[in-house]
From TrEMBL:
This is GntR family transcriptional regulator. InterPro entries: HTH_trans_reg/aminotransferase (IPR051446), Tscrpt_reg_HTH_GntR (IPR000524), WH-like_DNA-bd_sf (IPR036388), WH_DNA-bd_sf (IPR036390). It comes from Streptomyces sp. R41. It holds the Pfam family GntR. CDD domains: WHTH_GntR (cd07377).
């Protein structure tokens, strides 16, 4: 039996989840996202956390808030990129950034190992 409490998602993770749902077609243009209060309660997070996630998605151009009505997936104007394609591209970009970050971390570790093997270079000619 797992007695550890489940970690609650932060705003970035909630935005990524909804972005993935838009990319998968779960939410399409014109669809209303879950109400922030109810969604916050469902996830066990503060209302502000969900509002921050929705704000992030709004800044990305995926959703729009309508006063007194809720948050909706944008319905693109003719010639504009649809939210689903934008969400797919953002999701792919995030995966690429994660991959590059992991590779960079590996390179940093290799450099540290090389420096440790070579020893300090301060004060040596040509260094």
């Amino acid at each position: 039996m797992n007695s550890q409490p489940t970690r609650k998602p932060n705003a970035r993770e909630i935005a990524a989840r909804i972005r993935g749902e838009i990319a998968a077609g779960t939410f399409g243009p014109g669809d209303r996202l879950p109400g922030a209060r109810a969604y916050a309660k469902k996830l066990g997070v503060a209302l502000m956390t969900v509002q921050n996630a929705y704000t992030q998605l709004q800044e990305e151009g995926l959703v729009e808030g309508r006063a007194g009505s809720g948050t909706y997936v944008c319905d693109p104007a003719p010639g504009e990129q649809a939210p689903r394609e934008a969400a797919l591209r953002l999701t792919e970009l995030q995966a690429q950034v994660a991959r590059v970050s992991a590779e960079l971390a590996g390179l940093v570790e290799r450099i540290k190992q090389l420096e440790a093997a070579v020893g300090p270079t301060e004060g040596k000619p040509g260094a």
